[in-house]
Amino acid sequence: MKRTDAIREVQQLKRSQHSHIVQVIGTYTFKQDLAILLYPAAEFNLETFMESILAESPGSTNYLHKEETQPKLRAMVTFFSCLSRAINFLHSNATKHMDIKPKNLLINDLRYNSLSSQGPYKIYIADFGITRSYKRAADAETDSPTSFTPLYAAPEVVDQRKRGLSADIFSLGCVFTEMLAVLAESDNESKRKDLLAVLSADEEQPRSYHGNIPLVTQWLREINGLNNCSPHFIELSPLRDMIWQMIDANPLRRPSADTVVSWLEAPTSCCLLGTGPDPFSAESLVKETEGIEKNGRTMNSRRVVSLYHRCAALQERLSRVPGLDHWWENNNQSISNIKTTLGPVTSLWQIFRQGIPLVRLYNALDPSRQIAIKPDLAEEQRAWAVDSFLDACEKDPKIDDFLYFLPNDLFNDNVVGFTKVSTFSCMLLFTVDESVERPKRPELIHLFTGL
Fold first, then answer.
1. Pairing of strands 105-109, 121-125
2. What 8-state DSSP symbol labels residue 163?
3. Which of 258, 275, 285, 311 could be 415's S-S partner, Cβ–Cβ 3.0 to 4.6 Å?
4. Are residues 251 and 300 in the same domain?
5. Would you say 96 and 265 are in contact if contact means Cβ atoms under 8 Å apart?
6. Tens digit of pLDDT for each residue in 245-258?
7. What span, in angstroms and rounded, lies between the C-alpha atoms of 434 and 17?
8. 396, 385 Cβ separation under 8 angstroms
């Protein structure tokens, strides 16, 4: 991804704060690369999620009756509502995603998250690389050249004709069709194979929905008729009977996102929380981290364990930075007390809040003008040290970072903010003189780079 494209995606995501849209929690540059840190670190995309269900009984629909697949099947039913409401949120803000497809829909496994009350799985819209926002919905009708995914793109997008928000509705209808194929059964055989055959009806053309709209529409009506008594299909009524309208060749005849939402029953528990992003707090991070460390759980722990180990490695690395190592040694007792009573995330947080460690980290860069350090900073003066550190970093030409953290990111009890602090500190270490000792274990490097 080009740097300009990455910056555009970050800006777009910051404008699109919703419970079912991925969040930007930080960015950093490493050499010539710009990296974006997103939440959540999902276990599946929708394509691999559906494949994991089908893998339970290859070639048949026995998976529909297996106890172990029921949580995923139940989640699949709720995803119709979640995705519809997320797209409606985007469209109500005159934003078109332009690349809705299973691979761009991430699914987080919450079964082992003791703090979650949102069901076993949660779905998020991702990849906003070609997303565009406008002042008004009418302005979203554009005809400039754009990239697209042929399998899920609307006819007007493929032909590079004028297209608007309804192009997203077409792509969402294609995704819903594939989801129905997983939930449907007929004579104990999977209907997914039938759908794939329909999409490949024209052997001379690539597999697509836009090239086979009449056949897909007929297929939808057939499976709806065959699954009238299916509990999953009953719950999806009347939406399941209307999906064919979403993939109409004529954009003007497709329903709006608001209309699609009206075809659904009451919102699921995750959607009842509101349209804002998933909330985070330092307390919840510490609780979840401690639970993983004590219970030895590994499933769904990638998000917290990654930050946990990164902070632990960062503490070790900071203790060897010239100038900072002397301060660390002189304050070893107080630091030891912090590290003994708290985990590495919270302890590093408190250490950085003292201000002096950040100032000494900057001074280790050997800049032409070092920050003067005031001894024995009072609590009210620690903010001065942090402000001095950030001001010096911003003015230093050797420090190339796309997004500096703000003082509130450090002093407020919000893990999203502290993730920015820890990430920026890690990247700053890579600009320190090469004589600084690297981590003893090479495999720890990724904890600093995020790669």
1. antiparallel
2. B
3. 285
4. no
5. no
6. 999 999 999 999 99
7. 40
8. no
